[in-house]
Amino acid sequence: MLALNRTNLQPTTFLLLGIPGLEADHVWISIPFCLVYLLSLMGNVSLLLIVKTDPKLHEPMYVFLCMLCVADLMLTSSTLPKILSLFWFKNREIYFEACLTQMYFIHSLSTMESGFILAMAFDRYVAICHPLRHSAILTPTVIAGMGLVIVFRGAILLSPHPFLLRWLSYCKTNVISHTYCEFMALIKLVCNKTKIRRAYSLIVAFLTGGLDFILIITSYILILLTVFSLPSKAARRKTLSTCVSHVWVILVFYTPAFFSFLTHRFGHHIAPHIHIFIANVYLLIPPMMNPIMYGVKTNRIRERFFKFSTIKCV
After folding, report:
1. Looking at residue 78, which CATH number applies to its domain?
2. Do 162 and 104 contact (CB within 8 A), yes or no?
3. Is residue 88 pLDDT above 90, yes or no?
4. What sequence ranges are listed for the domain G-protein coupled receptors family 1 profile (predicted)?
């Protein structure tokens, strides 16, 4: 039942539906969701501790990776507890202000993640295309400045989103056909004209994730041009191997992100449960996979992780 504030037709609470059509399977779906969440927490916290305690890993790439880990931890922790509460206890209610807050954190932290992945691509570009100037270009001051710019970009550009939705009239329903609050799911519930708000969201998405992706592709084109100019095949293979983990991070992050973004706006023929499942994959899988991919590829991280695990077991 739609409980409204009569002054502006705002609901006091929203009801999260979960995954439409799969409500009967929510308990079973929650099992892999919970496991992925626990692996994300363990992996990212372990990676932060390993990098912090090992001076040899105090390099720009791993500093940016730690920033990404922090964003991943905040993103999953702002969504997964409520999703699991919905699946396990059918706790569908979420307060209006809490819903807007969750939406802000999801979009701003996702934007920060994209920025940190771009920063890691820039590090790979400098390390491969300008190796003699790497330490001179990426100084601790520059790294800290890049991190702050990425954080403030996400925080400021996405800050209008809650206010764009705060004063609208939600006269259709207060049921959100999703497992969490996000901009496009909420905008579909209002009766006001939303063309300007949708346009702003689209522009911000392009200026952040879209532009980041273009710059990442550009950096890798320059990297490939440099690599293929190397004289020996062994040198080319060794140089490219330093980018493998980062390329996987790019694919894991941007593939579901673009799918979710495009289907929300243009994929009306796609079944709702498929879209919402992919939207959850976008939030769950990258935070779990990032530490695994770097742990598997980086001997130093892998060795420290096993050493840390052994100490804990003892």
Report:
1. 1.20.1070.10
2. yes
3. yes
4. 43-294
Number of domains in the chain: 1
Pick left, alpha or beta for residue 3 (phi over 0 → left; psi -120 to 50 → alpha; otherwise beta).
beta
State the pLDDT at residue 6.
43
Cβ-Cβ contacts under 8 Å for 7 (sequence gap 6 or more): none
Cα(203)–Cα(197) distance, rounded to whole angstroms?
A: 10
Across 103-117, b (16+ Cβ under 10 Å) vs e yields: bbbbbbbbbbbbbbb
Residue type present at position 36: V
For residue 68, pLDDT beyond 80? yes
Q: What residue has token string 């390329």?
A: 247
User: What is each CA distance from 307 to 46, 116, 292, 296, in whole angstroms?
Assistant: 11, 28, 16, 15
Q: Residue 43 belongs to what domain range?
A: 4-313
Better pLDDT: 172 or 82: 82
Residue 271 vs residue 291, higher pLDDT: 291
Whether 151 contacts 143, CB under 8 Å? no
- In this model, does residue 8 exceed pLDDT 60? no
For 121, the token pair is: 């691509």
Band of the pLDDT at 295, cuts 50, 70, 90? confident
Sign of the torsion angle spanned by Cα atoms 30, 34, 35, 36: positive
